[in-house]
């Protein structure tokens, strides 16, 4: 039986699975893209995913990383790749080494340090790009971007042989089109993320909105999280087709979260939102 009762969301054949409650655990995976954003306590369902993209080192987001690596080894899979803010690499390696001593078996790992602006290739035409968030030292979010080669407009009417001829002449006949598929913001206080076009236009936005009640605004500020009023401001300039909300507080029931959300957002924005945790199948 799987270790977690994960939420399931399907958007245009792309499955998104995860679990996210503020302070408890956050892990959100897109198996078809072979990425898992944060790792929580390493649910069984994400062990076979080859790339884990950590946003920051808080325990509720990162606790399971060593277990993920060791389970992959145990199952005969290649060492998992973990992207993480570059300042976390040393303590992560220390944890892996300490587990190796404790367990008696070394834990193979491929750790990749990232800073805002860095890119990492996930598949031949798929990249993860890190961008800065305002939460903890070095914290980042990630956009998964598809790159497609497109013929320049002036060449679209040419025949195959004509194109081959131009290529022989070393003419640049195409350009690269970037399609941001999914963006995961992770924990952050309010920042105008719409200034980065690939975030504003990402087809799917996975974003935290932790606090909802009026008197929780101070908690949001203290923990460097978003409150519903800031979340509503953020969405004003965003063009995402689907907005998945994560990291909701345990202090406010989901029913109430939904009511406040509906009140705070214009209808065309509200109808694009999905509360991740409202999409968990009931346990039998
Ligand atoms: Zn968190
Ligand atoms: Zn955090």
Main sheet strand line-up:
1-2-3-4-5-6-7
**Average residue pLDDT:** 96
The helix/strand class is: alpha/beta
Radius of gyration: 21 Å
Helical stretch tally: 9
Could you tell me which ligands this complex binds, including any ions or cofactors?
A: zinc ion
Strand portion, in percent? 25-35%
Largest sheet: 7 strands, mixed
Sum up the overall morphology in one term: globular
Q: Helicity range of the residues?
A: 25-40%
Distance between the termini: 12 Å
| Poorly predicted sequence stretches spanning 5 or more consecutive residues | none
Quantity of strands, as a count: 14
Which series of helices and strands comes N to C?
EEEEEHHEHEEEEHEHEHHEHHE
Structure write-up:
- It contains 9 helices and 14 strands.
- It has 284 residues and is an alpha/beta fold.
- The strands form 2 sheets. A 7-stranded mixed beta sheet has the order 1-2-3-4-5-6-7. Strands 8-9-10-11-12-13-14 form a 7-stranded mixed beta sheet.
- Helix 3 links the parallel strand 6 (81-85) and strand 7.
- The two termini are 12 Å apart.
- The model has no long low-confidence stretch (mean pLDDT 96).
- The protein binds zinc ion (2 copies).
- One zinc ion binds at residues 22, 26, 58, 60-61, 187, 247.
């Amino acid at each position: 039986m799987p270790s977690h009762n994960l939420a399931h969301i399907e958007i245009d054949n792309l499955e998104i699975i995860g679990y996210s409650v503020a302070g408890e655990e956050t892990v959100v995976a897109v198996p078809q893209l072979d990425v898992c954003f944060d790792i929580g306590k390493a649910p069984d369902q994400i062990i076979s995913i080859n790339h884990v993209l950590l946003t920051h080192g808080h325990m509720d987001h990162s606790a399971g990383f060593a277990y993920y690596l060791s389970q992959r080894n145990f199952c005969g899979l290649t060492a998992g790749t973990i992207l993480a803010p570059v300042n976390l690499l040393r303590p992560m390696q220390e944890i892996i080494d300490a587990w190796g001593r404790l367990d008696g078996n070394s834990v193979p790992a491929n750790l990749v340090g990232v800073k805002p602006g860095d890119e990492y290739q996930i598949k031949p035409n798929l990249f993860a790009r890190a961008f800065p968030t305002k939460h903890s030292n070095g914290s980042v979010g990630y956009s998964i971007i598809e790159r497609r080669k497109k013929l320049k407009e002036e060449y679209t009417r040419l025949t195959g042989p004509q194109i081959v001829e131009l290529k022989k002449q070393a003419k640049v006949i195409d350009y690269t089109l970037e399609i941001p598929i999914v963006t995961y913001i992770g924990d952050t206080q309010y920042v105008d993320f719409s200034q980065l076009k690939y975030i504003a236009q990402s087809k799917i936005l996975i974003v935290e909105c932790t606090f909802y009640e009026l008197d929780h605004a101070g908690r949001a500020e203290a923990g460097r999280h978003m409150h519903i009023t800031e979340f509503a401001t953020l969405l004003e300039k965003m063009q995402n087709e689907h907005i998945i909300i994560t990291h909701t507080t345990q202090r406010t029931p989901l029913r109430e979260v939904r009511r406040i959300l509906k009140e705070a957002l214009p209808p065309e924005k509200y109808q694009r939102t999905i509360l991740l945790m409202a999409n968990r199948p009931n346990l039998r």
